[in-house]
């Protein structure tokens, strides 16, 4: 080396004399530092390894579960196949040549033939629904921060203000349909049938089978009468409606005064008018933003069903191959929305033990669900998914049902609000059977629902917004109040 770079222009010897110890210092410092870094890295690495060791078992459980799901899709998916990406990720594929000609106006595209899912997240989401209330209540509005001022206003169309500055006014509009606490509870029914409106209902005769369920959930203007009885049954317990359907509701409800109406979106002038003219109990759905999976009322009826029923059988959904039109059993075909996306997602849900699918192409099968993961496997996979998520998000190892409670409220035995209805009920409305649900004595509840309530220490869970997993509103009732 002839010339050192960055050498001071003069007094080389002197500066050299100074420099040597500095360089030695620097070298020492550098090696000390790298030792430190090394120590830090290896301890970090060791820590990581402990985490990995703990989670290895969970990853095994989930990988095993993924193979079960894959097998289930192969057996039941009518051509769909599952490709496992890792212990959580899974891709569902339609066979080559599947007709995807249904143009999606919203996304300006034809439907893809492949759909990726995070099975862990899906499991967390849908298992959560089993413990959830999906009905808007007074205690929820009271508990949620700005529940009345901001949230209540969002559920009223044409309020004339962006917020409920006049709480009395909002209370007056809502109280007709606002129960004090959940009128329906987790595990209230053993079996529920969710009946969609697909035209393929006419290809089968599921009527009696549907009616044998403890509760039947329908949507919008689906007619239930002798004409369709053998295809769709006659039992009517719940009906989820979008507000656009309000005007048609009166002739459709005729003769079923006890069928509970649940409004999916907003209450509205038309609706309040309609409500006054029918004796049926009416409520608002809680949790209306949907971010994943198939869109529409169908998915919401499944959520509603899962929040009250152990077993959810679905009929009349568009889940068979070969559709070219969106059909309804009671009217002409109309424009459809995402049939392939829906079919894939419902198939995934069936293989996660959330729903059981019934359709013309599955009607010939005997009722054998042995290839669907059973409750034990699902519970194990669910706990593993919770633990993995806790590690990933740096939370502690809480796997209990309250781990997602962001907001807590307590309701004492004497804090309970009035049951739904308003003082100026019309003649028809005076016979409304709100009390059947809202004043049901605890002892009359199904044993499983009572046990659940006790295990949950009298706590009701509500979603804060749409499908978000975390951020629950949790309201604890004193257990001896029995409500
Ligand atoms: C709030 O609304 C109620 C019910 O409509 C009404 O009687 C009252 O005058 C309103 N209060 C204000 C300050 O506007
Ligand atoms: C059943 O409902 C459909 C559609 O509303 C109607 O056309 C039909 O006449 C009804 N049948 C009976 C027996 O009421
Ligand atoms: C649901 O409730 C049961 C008690 O019935 C509880 O054991 C379970 O952990 C809860 N699951 C979730 C996901 O909250
Ligand atoms: C209200 O519900 C009760 C209990 O199910 C039932 O016996 C009664 O007939 C219903 N009343 C009306 C007006 O429908």
Structure explained in plain terms:
- The chain is of the alpha/beta class and 483 residues long.
- The protein has one domain (31-483): sialyltransferase cstii, chain A (Alpha-Beta Complex), CATH 3.90.1480.20.
- It is built from 14 helices and 15 strands.
- The protein has helices at residues 12-76, 119-129, 138-143, 147-154, 167-174, 207-211, 229-232, 249-253, 269-277, 297-306, 339-351, 375-392, 434-438, 447-455; strands spanning 81-84, 89-93, 114-118, 189-195, 215-219, 238-241, 260-263, 282-284, 309-315, 326-328, 331-334, 356-357, 405-411, 459-463, 472-477.
- The strands form four sheets. Strands 8-7-6-5-4-9-12 form a seven-stranded parallel β-sheet, covered by helices on one side.
- α7 (229-232) links the parallel β5 and β6 (238-241).
- The termini are far apart.
- The relative contact order is 0.14.
- Mean pLDDT is 84; it is low at 1-23, 35-47 and 290-294.
- One 2-acetamido-2-deoxy-beta-D-glucopyranose (NAG) is lined by residues 127-128, 131, 401, 452, 455-456.
- Belongs to the glycosyltransferase 29 family.
- It holds the Pfam family Glyco_transf_29.
- Keywords: Glycoprotein, Glycosyltransferase, Golgi apparatus, Membrane, Signal-anchor, Transferase, Transmembrane, Transmembrane helix.
- Its main location: Golgi.
- One of its GO terms (biological process) is pollen tube growth.
């Amino acid at each position: 080396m002839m010339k050192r770079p960055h050498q001071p222009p003069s007094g080389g010897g002197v500066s050299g004399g100074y420099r040597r110890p500095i360089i030695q210092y620097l070298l020492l410092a550098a090696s000390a530092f790298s030792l430190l870094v090394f120590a830090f890295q290896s301890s970090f690495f060791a820590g990581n390894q402990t985490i990995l060791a703990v989670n290895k078992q969970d990853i095994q459980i989930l990988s095993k579960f993924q193979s079960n799901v894959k097998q289930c899709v192969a057996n039941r998916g009518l051509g769909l196949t599952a490709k496992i990406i890792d212990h959580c990720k899974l891709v569902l594929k339609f066979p080559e040549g599947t007709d995807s000609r249904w143009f999606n106006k919203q996304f300006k595209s034809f439907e893809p033939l492949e759909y990726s899912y995070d099975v862990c997240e899906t499991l967390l989401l849908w298992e959560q629904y089993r413990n959830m209330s999906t009905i808007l209540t007074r205690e929820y509005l009271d508990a949620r921060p700005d529940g009345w001022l901001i949230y209540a206003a969002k559920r009223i169309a044409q309020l004339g203000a962006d917020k409920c500055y006049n709480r009395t006014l909002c209370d007056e509009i809502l109280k007709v349909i606002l129960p004090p606490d959940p009128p329906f509870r987790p595990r209230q029914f053993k079996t529920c049938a969710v009946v969609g409106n697909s035209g393929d209902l006419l290809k089968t005769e599921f009527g009696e089978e549907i009616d044998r369920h403890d509760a039947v959930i329908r949507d919008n203007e689906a007619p239930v009468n002798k004409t369709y009885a053998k295809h769709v049954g006659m039992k009517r317990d719940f009906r989820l409606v979008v507000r656009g359907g309000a005007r048609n509701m009166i002739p459709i409800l005729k003769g079923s005064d006890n069928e509970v109406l649940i409004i999916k979106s907003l209450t509205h002038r038309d609706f309040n008018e309609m409500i006054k003219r029918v004796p049926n109990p009416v409520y608002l759905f809680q949790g209306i933003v949907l971010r994943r999976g198939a869109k529409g009322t169908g998915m919401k009826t499944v959520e509603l069903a899962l929040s009250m029923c152990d077993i959810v059988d679905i009929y009349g959904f568009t889940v068979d191959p070969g559709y070219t039109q969106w059909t309804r059993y009671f009217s002409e075909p109309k424009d459809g929305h995402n049939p392939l996306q829906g079919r894939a997602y419902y198939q995934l849900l069936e293989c996660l033990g959330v729903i059981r699918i019934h359709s013309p192409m599955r009607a010939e099968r005997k009722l054998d669900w042995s290839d669907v993961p059973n409750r034990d496997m699902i519970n194990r996979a669910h706990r593993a998914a919770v633990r993995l998520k806790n590690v990933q998000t740096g939370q502690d190892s809480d796997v209990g049902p309250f781990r997602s409670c962001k907001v807590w409220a307590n309701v004492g035995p004497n804090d309970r609000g009035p049951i739904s209805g308003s003082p100026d009920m019309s003649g028809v409305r005076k016979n409304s059977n709100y009390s059947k649900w809202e004043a049901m004595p605890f002892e009359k509840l199904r044993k499983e629902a009572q046990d659940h309530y006790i295990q949950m220490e009298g706590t009701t869970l509500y979603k804060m917004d749409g499908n978000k997993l975390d951020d629950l509103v949790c309201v604890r009732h004193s257990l001896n109040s029995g409500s």
